[in-house]
Amino acid sequence: MASTSDIKKGLCIRYNHDIFKIIEFLHVKPGKGPAFVRTKLKSVTTGKVIDNTFSAGHKIDDVRVETHSFQYLYPEGDSFHFMNTEDFNQITLQKSALDAPDLLKEGEVVSILLNSEDGMPLSVEMPTHVVLEITHTEPGVKGNTATNATKPATVETGATVNVPLFINEGDKIKIETDKGTYVERVKE
């Protein structure tokens, strides 16, 4: 048993007869009244996100997890196939288990949290940044740079990301996976 002081991003807990992963949290200490923790929980079985508030000191039932490295192999409908990089066993996960499935490139190595009790996969943790190639974007309009102007660009995985006007087709860009936003152009 853990308490609200142990809450952190990525922690898996048992709540309402399901297992949830904490994706956001905020400790709040109002000037009047008791402290509490406001959380955003994502169900690892359905992918549904709920908001919940725990009072300070509330006991939570955490789930013991193991983290393993898996390589993303290929998609098949709404299923994604991964291979353990240590023992080469393969597993299949549903699209709802992934936070940013549209930024996942074949061959990418991710961390998958497995329940220690039954070995069931709980969630997929993407790397903080991915490098993807631009496959389609409109050319930037000259003179449209008075502000931080951006344009939509399609990357090799099919995702659409807003990029600065100087980015062209064939460029490789670094994308932050949490927000799905452009970080920088990568020179090779």
TrEMBL record:
Protein biosynthesis listed as a keyword: yes
GO cellular component: cytosol
Domain spans labelled Translation elongation factor P/YeiP central: 67-122
InterPro entries in the record: Elong-fact-P_C, NA-bd_OB-fold, Rib_uL2_dom2, Transl_elong_fac_P/YeiP, Transl_elong_KOW-like, Transl_elong_P/YeiP_cen, Transl_elong_P/YeiP_CS, Transl_elongation_fac_P
Entry coiled-coil feature ranges: none
Protein biosynthesis found in the keyword field: yes
SMART domains the UniProt entry points to: EFP (SM01185), Elong-fact-P_C (SM00841)
GO molecular function per UniProt: translation elongation factor activity
Keyword set, alphabetical order: Cytoplasm, Elongation factor, Protein biosynthesis
Pathway stated in the Swiss-Prot or TrEMBL entry: Protein biosynthesis; polypeptide chain elongation
Compartments it resides in: Cytoplasm
Gene Ontology annotations of biological process type: peptide biosynthetic process
Similarity annotation: Belongs to the elongation factor P family.
Described function: Involved in peptide bond synthesis. Stimulates efficient translation and peptide-bond synthesis on native or reconstituted 70S ribosomes in vitro. Probably functions indirectly by altering the affinity of the ribosome for aminoacyl-tRNA, thus increasing their reactivity as acceptors for peptidyl transferase.
PANTHER family: ELONGATION FACTOR P, ELONGATION FACTOR P (EF-P) FAMILY PROTEIN
UniProt name for this protein: Elongation factor P
Gene: efp
